[in-house]
Amino acid sequence: MMDPLLMNVAMIPAVAVLGIILGLIYKGIDRRLAARMQARIGPPLRQPFIDLKKLMMKENIVPKNAVSWVFNFMPVVALASSLMLLMYIPFLQIPAILAGSGDLIVILYVLIFPSLALVVGGFASGSPYATVGAQREMVAMLSYEVPLAITIVSIAWLMSMTGSIGTAFDLAAVSAANIWSLVGPIGAVGLLLLLVVLIFVTTGEMGAIPVDAAEAETEIAGGLLAEYSGRNLALFYLTSAVKMVALGSLIIALFLPMTPVQLGLVQAGNTGMIANVLCFLAKLFVVVFLSSTFIRVAVARFRITQVVKVYWGYTTLAALLGLLLVGVDILLKVS
Amino acid sequence: MIGRLFITQSGMWNPLSFVVAAVIILVIVYIIRSTGTKKYKKGTEQTVAFFSGGKAPEENVHPENLYWGFFEAMKRYYKWLMKFHTGIVNDYVYSFVLLVVVVAAVLLLGGAV
Question: pTM value?
Answer without folding.
Answer: 0.82
